[in-house]
Amino acid sequence: MKSKSKLTTTSLALSLALAASQSMAAGRDYISIVGSSTVYPFATVVAERFGKTTGNPTPKVESTGSGGGMKLFCSGVGTGHADITNASRRMKKSEFELCQSNGVTDVVEVLIGFDGIVLANSNKTQVMDLSRKDIFLALAKEVPAKDGEKLIPNPYKTWSDVNPALPNTKIEVLGPPPTSGTRDAFAELALEGGCKKFDWIKAMKKKDKKAYKAVCHTIREDGAYVEAGENDNLIVQKLNANPEALGVFGFSFLDQNSDKVQGSKIEGVEPTFDSIADKSYPVSRPLYFYVKKAHVGVVPGIDGYLAEFTSEKAWGSDGYLAEKGMIPLPDETRAKFGANVKNLTAMTGEEALK
Amino acid sequence: MTEPNNNTAIIQRSLARRYRAEKRFRLYGLLGIAFGLLCVVTLFYDIVSKGHGAFRQTYVKLEINYDAELLGIGDISDARQLAAADYPALVTQALSQRLGSVSGRKARRELKRLMSDSAGYELQSRLKARPALLGASESLWLLADDDIDTYYKSLDASGQGFTGRVTERQQAWIKDLIATDDIRLQFNWVFFRNGDSREPEQAGIGGAAMGSLLTLLITFFLSFPIGVAAAVYLEEFAPKNRWTDFIEVNINNLAAVPSIIFGLLGLAILINFFHVPRSVPVIGGLVLTLMTLPTIIISSRAAIKSVPPSIREAAIGIGASPMQVVLQHVLPLAMPGMLTGSIIGMAQALGETAPLLMIGMVAFIVDIPQGFTDPATVLPVQIFLWSDSPERAFVEKTSAAIMVLLTFLISMNALAVAMRRRLERRW
Prior knowledge:
- The complex is a heterodimer.
- By secondary structure, chain A is of the alpha/beta class.
- Chain A contains 16 helices and 13 strands.
- Chain A has helices at residues 2-26, 40-54, 66-73, 93-101, 132-139, 159-162, 181-195, 199-207, 209-217, 232-241, 251-256, 273-277, 302-309, 312-315, 320-323, 331-343; strands spanning 32-35, 60-62, 84-87, 107-122, 129-130, 142-144, 151-153, 173-175, 225-227, 246-250, 261-263, 265-266, 284-292.
- In chain A, helix 8 crosses helix 9 (209-217).
- The termini of chain A are far apart.
- By secondary structure, chain B is mainly alpha-helical.
- Chain B has 3 domains: 2-52; 55-194, no CATH class; 206-423, MetI-like (MetI-like fold), CATH 1.10.3720.10.
- Chain B has 18 helices and 4 strands.
- Chain B is extended and about 95 Å long.
- Classes of the chains: A alpha/beta, B mainly alpha.
- Strand 2 (60-62) of chain A pairs antiparallel with strand 4 (363-364) of chain B.
């Protein structure tokens, strides 16, 4: 008797779940957005404004990371799948193929702006003036020996070991873990940028791309680079408590905490809004979002959301996204992608994807 | 005869040492408690000192003139004109009237940034409610921007504050407003009423609290009946054999399984196989049900066990069937214990984040969920999202949300204790 009633309750629970899923799958009246946690602060502002001004339901924005977002986005067509994915890097070739094989054939790519990555320390100490080569030598797992073309485990303990012009303080950098897009971009832009300065390593790129990447992107694991979690606010707090350390995080966090931390100069350029916009600050990365063309017109509001995102008042040089810390695109690029969005020009597969 | 004397002497000599050891032993215990209390006090001090500011928000008093021409409204009865009107222009006009007109694009932007965008929406809803306001003026307290709020709250007696996000011109304006008492802190109803927002001054926990409520309702109405039914069967009807032993061991094991595992289970089975949509209270409730079931089964079994056998025997003695014994005698007596266990289980579910990360409840949701299939997030996840936001003003919002969550948890646990005190029977 009793076991039967239990069975009915369980099946009731399952049927409830099923009924819910069916009623939802039939039609979704809100836009579903997934993807990068770096683009999240910008996409959410647009989503909120879109909801408030048009009266459409506010889109649901999930922060899943760039890679996770691509996976959800490319898993298929239909209201059960996401409409838009944000990314803090360009779509990879493998991801484009995954999309194609799952029937997501028409994808519109939109470059929305840039994000600077800063190396910052506490205001209580002096501003560091680093080159990308210094950063590479201080943080790579293996560095070129001083004599000749071979790699040795990173021997440097202080910044002055790396470059006599730098202060004699311990190398201690707090940064995001390997799962973070910020870390990938930091490795690619800062470390690789410095790594390339060694001609013989640069030559490796043509011969053995894998080995080249391993040398240039691998961060040391002997304690000089401390994985401080994905939360950038936490890194800012830790820098405040430990003036000797440097931290790696996005430009918008520097902007909001300018009373506590200061950005190090890289190649002599201070990270400011303008220096990132005109590309004189070298460590910045592009931000993208991707739209599933098959969903436009099926899920209500996608065209409205796209129009809001690509309006001058949002992504323009004085738009509200710039106020939130996103570095806007140059005018021509913005016009080009704006037109792409208007005509819903899908990716052809001819793009130089990595 | 000397021997017993000798023993007494030995005992007496060691006595002082034993007393000392005893004292030390108690001291260790006390130190342990003191350390624990110190940690709790530090934690609470940190949260409260950071978060208390969020319960009050900066408002600026402005004289708003609903100028039909500026708004671009020709016909007040036309809903489309009313919706498309330029409300922010009214705010900017009121600001320049109050603070002196400014020239230059940059200065105008700085002026506009004094106020939150919600000021425009506020005017819109006021005009919609009372069309007679068109052409009239009224003086209103309107929400200031979050940067202004942060600056105003950080001002100390000497007029120094956090100037990172406000310009010198804006500081002068604020000084002007302070001089005439046109800027002040008001109780922050917005924080309790609104859903999430990317503008800290408009962000609230209303949406997350509603999401938590809907999720917990599902959790309770699924896990309580299932848990009680399972407990009753195992305690009252199941034969004692290897199978029931196996089940018992597994239930105890499940209670100790890390909650993220239940999230993965929800992702694999409920989302990928049954296609339950992501980020809705239904999926959150189902996953949390799995997580709280073992807790409820274990506490329910303990409650049933504590009902003395004499009551069952008496009932059987006067001819009750086993089902009647359970439904009419054992369950009513065990109910307080079962409910207490369930409330504690619910409190656990309320504070849980890890399994929800897997099923998409880490999402930006502005609209307050109205039903079980609306996208929603929950309180602990809202805290997680805010703690990761760049805007400075979210620091105090995060701590304030933690205070609200703690209040809920403490009151639920207090309810459980109170119920146990009042309803529990001792035999």
